[in-house]
Amino acid sequence: MTSGHDRPRVVRHFVLPGTLRGKLHAWRFVIARRSVQIATLLLFFGTLHWGWKIAGRPLLAGNLSASELLGAIPLADPFAVLQILASGHRPGREVLTGAAIVLAVYLLLGGRVFCAWVCPMNIVTDTATTLREKVGVRDLFHLSPKARYWVLALALALSASTGVAAFEWISPIGILHRELVFGLGLGFIAVLGVFLFDLLVLRHGWCGHLCPLGAFWSLGGPAGQIRVAFDDASCTRCGDCVKVCPEPAVLNFTAAARNGMVLAGECTNCGRCVAICPESSLSFGLRARRVAAAPIAHEFTQTREPR
Amino acid sequence: MNDSSRTRRDFLVKGAQMAGAAASVGFIWHALVKSEARASAGALRPPGALAERDFAAQCIKCGQCVRACPYGTLSLASVAGPAATGTPHFEPRTVPCYMCPDLPCTRACPSGALDPALDDVNRARMGLAVIDEEHCLSWQGLRCEVCYRVCPLRGKAIVINTESRKTSRHAVFEPMVDSEHCTGCGLCEKSCPTELAAIRVLRPEFVQGRIGAHYRMQDKASRSGQAADAPAAAPSPRIAAPKPQAAPGVDYLNQAAPP
Q1: B26, B75, B109: residue with CB nearest A154
Q2: Cβ contact (<8 Å) for B110 and A74?
Q3: What pLDDT score does B225 carry?
């Protein structure tokens, strides 16, 4: 972990400011993410239960699986559509169009922006993580974060063998989201399962190891335009960012220093590292800037970097 | 053991472990999905729903049909509900389908699980009303016929059979369901005055039998001038069969002897 120049002097660690102003600044991304997550739920909920409209058109009808924006723009979950296709069925044109639109948007923003900024399960798993760190729970066993890609492959294989979208049929995300939008029911048991798994069994167990939807968006990640930029010169390697990162493997200093950016698809753009960095070495940046600055040849090799 | 065989062995063991893990997780997952599928065996779907297998695969569980329904008929099934989790269904005894002529639910469906080609709600086949004659007030001799009067296709989907009984007994007004017209909307089930509805809407496949192609039924076929479910008669390889006149199938008993 050495780069060409001298490492800066004293290693300082992050300290949560005592003032409210400072705290709000430190928590700015959490606050922003919760606002977006809750606003998304509220748009669905308000359109369904309170008849929210703009110019006579329903604001956002449906849910995260498929919806219609302003009665005109179809939106759909590309992973759900992929499973339906794998099951040997051809979804309707509206859903296909919607999936293409959503896919294009997230490819542009960075695939896993969905995970940190939209997915309602993120609120549940973040709460579990916060709690597990307060109590000091340790992992029950080790599981490779790559397991989720196997789950993803399994979801598609099972869609083909059962003839229905296999993950959609048991998805705790879908269950949670529907319960929140359409009404309360027994679905919270499934959500409780995820919560307890993350709390007692494995840190970031669901989002970071198992969720096939996250795996799907990870595959779309490397094309994302908004990425965490890394300034190697000011970094003291204090490691605060790695400790707070839900996907620590993406914060590979060697790759980040070379690329000037965190390019791994698993990065959710949650902003925890940006907020915690005591030297402000991390910030959100546009990928286009980096491409101009660094040789493009490294672009697709960086995630394979030995650590 | 040299190094290369050691790594090959490791690789094979690792591969077997992964395959084993994937297989066991896949097995449980498969069973879960299958048990979900069984859960919706009896669920009534919105008008225009494809056959259950296709519906289950196509429905993306977005609930846009639920939102579109002006009567609050539809709901998405919750976990351990009466249908596969997240799929739309309705329970007619609670809220039946009021058969909107403009089919808002079917139109709202983006996935094709509710057939966009359905343009006449009277052709929807959500279910089939079945009468429990033993507990039907009308069949037991009282004047009720509420189901008949609320039926949106009165006189077609539910008819009253008024044939009188023996001379010593008064006439009985028997409601009867015609599967050719019943849409399964459930207005009858909703308004049946008995404590537990004596007329209920069930999925047609639970109620209806099938005669089989080897029976040649004259009945409906010859009356309406078309074959019921008999396939077009294939000519015998040895003797050319006489061309059927009205209905394909063998109708010779009622016709003059063939030349």
Answers
A1: B26
A2: yes
A3: 46
